[in-house]
Amino acid sequence: MHNLRKPILTLVALFLLLAILIAGCGQKANTGQAGKNPALQASQNNPAPAKKDLILATTTSTMDSGLLDVLIPLFEKQTGYTVKPNAVGTGQALAMGDQGNADVLLVHAPEAEMKLVDKGTAINRQLVMHNDFIIVGPPGDPAQIKGVKKATEALQKIASRQAIFVSRGDDSGTDKMEKSLWKAANIKPEGKWYQEAGSGMGQTLSIASEKGGYTLTDRGTYLALKNNLKLDILVEGEKALLNIYHVMQVNPEKFTGMTINSEGAKAFVNFMIAPETQKIIGEFGKDKFGQPLFFPDAGKDEKTLGQ
């Protein structure tokens, strides 16, 4: 029996050695495959996010213009996150952030945005892009504002003639701008001629077109929809009408009892200010409208915009 033990042990050792060699070869084969397969290598370098859903609160203009229809799929493909956009007025978008009901914000009301930053509710606020506000109205221009240089003067003429003016009335960034212009014009708009739509930019433009009225709009949404509107650009070009967009994260430390996707939010902020994305923003609309709907601004000094 003692004489049989040595051959048996030798055979066991040989089998173990063979198993180790086979396993090692398989591991090398897999490593080589990963090196040759960019998709596999990318998935290894960028593992799937732990929390995939990313809630984006944004203004209607980014959706109505079609810009986010281009950017969101690209972001999702690059990062593996699934974006759930809520296109509402900027005031409502900021409120969602303030309540912890969003992960990241893309908005255009700088003064209101800074209130969230000062409170510590919003962090990592970055300049993304701008376009401008314009006053549009019926081709017949009953208030005769075409060519007026200042928006406040145009609003004074509209009010004095009680020409129909359709306001968004939804506490959006556009609505905030409009209200500030009426205040600067020393006018409290009221009466049958001043009508609040309580809706997004696209619908407000449609109402103004149907009623032969005036409204304030961002240029991007107007250009995207103008073929379906009976509205002309009547007042434009004033620096006071700049429409500036920022992106910012909701601060997870403010909402410790809630699940804020801070990693996804940071990835979205970085995506929006990345050179490749900024190039897409600068080209968006050129092929269809002959001009961009937005101008990329990442890394710029906000004070110099419009100069």
Overall description:
The chain is α/β, with parallel strands linked by helices. It has two domains: 53-131 and 243-300, 3-Layer(aba) Sandwich (D-Maltodextrin-Binding Protein, domain 2); 132-241, Periplasmic binding protein-like II (D-Maltodextrin-Binding Protein, domain 2, 3-Layer(aba) Sandwich), CATH 3.40.190.10. It is 47% helix and 19% strand. The protein has 13 helices and ten strands. Strands 1, 2, 3, 4, 7, 8, 9 and 10 form an eight-stranded mixed β-sheet that branches. Strands 5-6 form a two-stranded parallel ribbon.
Q: How would the blueprint of this fold be written?
A:
Elements: H1 2-36, H2 38-45, E1 53-59, H3 60-64, H4 67-79, E2 82-88, H5 90-98, E3 104-107, H6 110-119, E4 122-137, H7 151-160, E5 165-167, H8 173-184, E6 194-196, H9 201-211, E7 215-218, H10 219-225, E8 232-235, E9 242-250, H11 262-273, H12 275-283, H13 286-289, E10 295-296
Parallel strand pairs: 1-2, 1-3, 5-6
Antiparallel strand pairs: 3-9, 4-7, 4-8, 4-9, 4-10
State the gist of this model:
The protein has 307 residues and is an alpha/beta fold. It has helices at 2-36, 38-45, 60-64, 67-79, 90-98, 110-119, 151-160, 173-184, 201-211, 219-225, 262-273, 275-283, 286-289; strands at residues 53-59, 82-88, 104-107, 122-137, 165-167, 194-196, 215-218, 232-235, 242-250, 295-296. α8 links the parallel β5 and β6 (194-196).
